[in-house]
Every structure is written in C-alpha cells, then in structure tokens.
Amino acid sequence: MHHKPKVSFVCSVRDGMGDIERCASSVLRQNFQDIELVFVDDHSKDSTWEIMEKIARSDDRVRAIRNYGREGLTYSLNLGLDFLRGEYVARIDVDDFAHANRVELQLAAMECNDSAAMATSCYRVVDEGDFDMYSHCPSSDPKLLRWSLCFRNNLRHSTAMWRKSLEVRYDPSFTYAQDYDMWCRISRAGDIVVVPEIVATIRSKSDSITSTKHNEQESAADMVSARQFEHYTGRSISAKEARHLRMVYFLKNAEQLRVFESMCNSDIVTAAINYCLLACGFANKENPEGESLLLEVGHDVTNAMQNPTVGPRFAEALREAVKEHHGSSWIAEEIDKRFF
C-alpha cells in the first residue's frame, strides 16, 4: 500500500491462531475499504505469526509486525501505533469481529462533529459458542459518558476509533485497564460520540484477561478512577478511596453492595464526601445539562441512602458535604434541596 489510508486498524495478538483469520476477515470486508490492518504478534508460542504473514501476503492492506521487545498488550499496542499511517485509529481485539458497517458509521459520526475526539458504538457480547449473552449501548450524551468514566469502563476496545492527530499512546504503567485510562484521557481532548447501532461483536472467553485477571483489572481501574477524581477536583485520593467511591456508583451490583455494607464507618463517610466533591468538580468543569447529571447523581445517592445497613451513615456524611459546598456548586444545592 503506497497511499495513506483513511483508517488504520491495530490488533495485538498473543496465541490467537484460532481467531485471527475471522478477525482479519471482518476488518477487510468493511463497506468502507480505504483501510489498513496492522497486526502485532505479542510473543506468541503458537502459529499466530505464520498466519499473520499469510494474511499479509494475501492482502496488501495488511502488515504483520513482531514485537521483539517487552511483552504485553500495552507495549505491543504502542508498537503498532508507531506503524499506523491512517488519519483515524481503530482498535480490534483478535477474539472479536467488526460488522461490515462499523467504519462507515463511525467515520460518518466523527466527520460531521468537529468536537469529536473518538467514536464508539453499541455492541453485542457472545459466549465461546457465539451464542448471544447481552448487548450494551453507552450513553449518547458525551458529558454523561465522561461522568460514567469516573467510575467504570463501559467502552470496549473493539468499538473504539479516534483521531490519530491526538497522538495518544497507552500508558506503560498500566498492565491492565490500559484502555480505560486511554478513553479517559481522550475524553478530555473532545467528545466521545456513540453510534447507536451494534457494529461489533465481543466474544467472552473463559481464559480472557477480564475473566482470569479480574482483581488486577479492578485494582488498575481504581487507579484510573483516582486520576479522574484528581482531574475534576484537584485533590488526590488513594486507590482504596477510589474503590470505595466507585462502589457508590455500583450499588446496583449485588456483589459490590455486600462489600459496601461491610465497610467501616470512616470509609463510608469518606466515600460520601468524595462523591460530593467529584459531583461538584465535574459539574463546574463540564457544565452539563443540570437535570441529566442530577438524574444520574440522584440514582446513586438514592441507592446509597436507602440501604438499611449504610444508608444513615452515608446520608449524614453527604448532608454535611453538600452544605459545605453551597454557593460553590449548583449540584450541591440541588442534592441538598431534593434529598435533605
């Protein structure tokens, strides 16, 4: 390929010989054809590299690169980014596949929105036998999507496309949740727009990092959440405090609820105070539509306050925190008015 393609896909693979051909086929059969696909072999011990080379020989839009340096997804993806020539970067994981209209729709969504830094989409999740498990669509409101990123990563790698001009790279300090950290940083450069259609299928596998390294993923997510807190409040919190803050958002999750109920009084008080600080900082910096953010915050606050075990302690701490921020943030005043 001698010209610069519009969109460059990058895919890091380790021991993916059973999935790589289907993944490549889904990319190369896009309705929008001005693309390239860069595979990076991350120290595979099976025949992944040989299959990559075969695919690259059969289609000049494909390049195969071998990572001879430090192993790991973060380093292999950064290596792949160095070789991309497109105006836009698109990610795909080898377990997943892109629907034929993915690039077409995401590109259209970004090119009609100058403030868009990244596009994502709805997606479906299937099991190892390709049977449907569930579907998910992120919030189409860019500011509410930024709010959710303070607590969780609800965007999938295989739905992400961003402008190469942003010159973002994965943070080498993250072995896990490197995508979550990346989305948060991209969201500060512009809007993340959501294509309201399912354009990617994600395969849930029992041996995936998400399944086998859950605790490590959660610890890394705590670090990202702490960075988000500092970005919006100017204050630092520990990874432990970030975990407790995230739990306020996740109280609809039964497992997290049990952990929240077992927290000591001081941790519950701190979580309530930090939640108020984050809501105030976010509202002041992002200036979202008042009612939309208040609905999100109100949902979390109601869940916490109605819990029979921790509700009274949470409510007392939150009431003091919002009173302290009267006059400095409209959302503190609204929480006080509606809940106290």
H/E order of the elements?
EHEHEHEEHEEHEHEHHHHHHHH
Fourth-tier CATH superfamily name of the largest domain: Spore Coat Polysaccharide Biosynthesis Protein SpsA, Chain A
Q: Supply the helix-strand structural class.
A: alpha/beta
Give the helix tally.
Answer: 14
Shape: elongated
Distance between the termini: 64 Å
CATH architecture of the largest domain: Alpha-Beta Complex
Radius of gyration: 21 Å
Largest sheet: 9 strands, mixed
Count of domains: 2
Average pLDDT taken over every residue: 93
Low-confidence stretches: none
The helicity comes to 40-55%
Range of strand content: 15-25%
CATH topology of the largest domain: Spore Coat Polysaccharide Biosynthesis Protein SpsA, Chain A
What's the total count of β strands?
9
CATH class of the largest domain: Alpha Beta
